[in-house]
Amino acid sequence: MLPKALELMMSGVSPIAQRVAAFLEKRNNAAYCESCLVERLLIASRVAMKAAIESERFSTRIGICPDCKTRKQVIACRGGAGKAAA
Ligand SMILES: [Zn+2]
């Protein structure tokens, strides 16, 4: 058995990506902007954050972030669409 962290590293999924995905899934796959995600999840490294959201696990589009109510690039969990019932 591999330690969990090593397992995640080897599968190419960063712990930050996991946290972002869990956060978005909990909110019915809402799409939040990067700055709100950084703030909400207390992510120390914006570089790591960028790398995580650029992974194929997420998709970005222009939309309104439910947190800061600003129209900007928002990040959504890919594959989560359709799972949320309105
Ligand atoms: Zn926002």
Structure in words:
This protein is α+β, with helices and mostly antiparallel strands. The protein has one domain: Arc Repressor Mutant, subunit A (Orthogonal Bundle), CATH 1.10.10. Helices cover 40% and strands 19% of the residues. It has four helices and three strands; from the N terminus they run H-H-E-H-H-E-E. It has helices at 4-10, 15-26, 34-40, 46-53; strands spanning 32-33, 58-64, 71-77. Strands 1-3-2 form a three-stranded antiparallel β-sheet. The longest helix is centred in the first third of the chain and has 12 residues, at 15-26. The radius of gyration is 13 Å and the shape is globular. It starts with a helix and ends in a 9-residue tail after the last strand. Residues 81-86 have low confidence and may be disordered. Zinc ion binds at residues 32-33, 35-36, 65, 67-68, 70.
